[in-house]
Amino acid sequence: MDSSAARVTRRGLAGIAAGIAATGLARPALAQGAPLRVGMMLPFSGTFAALGENIATAFEMYVAEKGGRLGGRAVQIIRLDDESNPATAVQNVNRLVGRDRAEVLVGTVHSGVVMALVQASRERGIPLIIPNAGNVAATRDLCSPTVFRSSFSNWQPAYAAGLQLGRQGVKRAAWMTWDYAAGNEAGEGFREGLRQGGGEVVRELKLPFPETNFQPLLAQLPGLNVEAVGCFYAGGGAVQFVREYAAAGLKERIPLTGSGFITEGVLQAQGAAAEGMRTALHYGDGIDTPRNNAFRQAFRGRANRDADVYAVQGYDAAQILAAGLEGARGDPTAEQAFVRAVRAARIDSPRGAFTLSPSHNPVQNMYLREARGGENRVIGIAAEALADPGTGCRMS
Ligand code: PHB
After folding, report:
1. Which of 79, 75, 59 is nearest to 67 (CA)?
2. How many CB atoms lie within 10 A of CB 323?
3. Does any ligand 1 atom lie closer than 6 A to the CB of residue 134?
4. How far is the CA of 89 from the centre of ligand 1 (A)?
5. 128 lines ligand 1 (CB under 6 A)
6. From the CB of 322, is ligand 1 less than 6 Å away?
7. Radius of gyration from C-alpha coordinates of the chain
């Protein structure tokens, strides 16, 4: 950045904005019918690349279904690959809101990276819709009127998985994960759910994100005297973990469960190693509703692959944006109208319709799924209409 640009302070920008407002040109973009710039920050490389791709594809599919316009505005999507790298997150967000002048933010997958987006939204009042990252702070202590989630909190699916195990009478379980916000928060949910049923997590085994040297952790399991293992992994790492778990001869001895991301979008690659695994998630295969069937057919037509939870979350992020923009007549800076409309919306999701909790996280069923023949078949509901507790959320 050259020094003259760097010297434009927040105060300076506010002054310029006030000057424009005084001349009645506050919203030149709207006046000229310029497209709405949506900054879409997702991983398009690395272990979560397939997740980011499905989110983006389904988001774009919804926009296309609406003729390329939301809330009366043509939509221009600016994609940015965040590589699931927390170290470059702030710089990447600054690029979107600075150079690219994004008016709305959509992102991301990784719970560490998403905090840079949350901070930008809180500081600048730019609406943010989170289409995956479950970092609980985003809808608890750091909740904000302009931050919305179309996905889940890390607590939700893991809590349901633990609850399910507890109901089955499991008393001792281990928790395995990558050692970062998502894995640790999911671990808390799993522990809490299991405890409800009278069981406990007796050991946590972790390795740094996105490492896949699972062998030293797997080698410890037989000595722990546990009846089940819960886990949090996703994407490429999940493929490898499930395969190695089975190859180590553990699959039949100690049933593996957890947040359903472990088998989501990766079943083909996991093959027989995943067969029979039971997990909990807010989506699954075989939800036989006209809404879901139409969505799946359209997604397959567009992407030439099957939809999964990530596609659903991307699609619903676009639906949330549409609801806000409708209420704000296409102007995302009309904060009150935008927020009011999203809070009142009932999102017609392929997973089943949902509303947002007071802290802006979906209230939704956690399905019990079983992996069979390459599908995560829904076989029940592990927790109905589950809301994140939203602890510590005070909307300013
Ligand atoms: C997260 O980092 O919050 C995360 C990543 C991948 C998932 C789920 C959650 O599948």
Report:
1. 75
2. 22
3. yes
4. 16
5. no
6. no
7. 21
Give the strand order in the sheet containing 128-130.
Answer: 69-70, 73-81, 36-42, 104-107, 128-130, 147-149
Report cis status (omega within 30 of 0) of the bond before 108: yes
Helix (H, G, I), strand (E, B) or coil at 202: strand
Residue that has been written with the tokens 């989110």 in this structure: 55
Strand partners, 147: 128
pLDDT per residue of the chain (396 residues) written in tens, 0 to 9: 333 333 333 333 333 333 333 344 444 445 448 999 999 999 999 999 999 999 999 999 999 999 999 999 999 999 999 999 999 999 999 999 999 999 999 999 999 999 999 999 999 999 999 999 999 999 999 999 999 999 999 999 999 999 999 999 999 999 999 999 999 999 999 999 999 989 999 999 999 999 999 999 999 999 999 999 999 999 999 999 999 999 999 999 999 999 999 999 999 999 999 999 999 999 999 999 999 999 999 999 999 999 999 999 999 999 999 999 999 999 999 999 999 999 999 999 999 999 999 999 999 999 999 999 999 999 999 999 999 999 999 986
Atom of ligand 1 nearest to the CA of 180: 2
DSSP H or E segment with residue 231:
strand 228-232
Residue 156 Cα, ligand 1 centroid: separation in angstroms?
A: 12
Residue found by looking up tokens 């505005």 in the block? 73
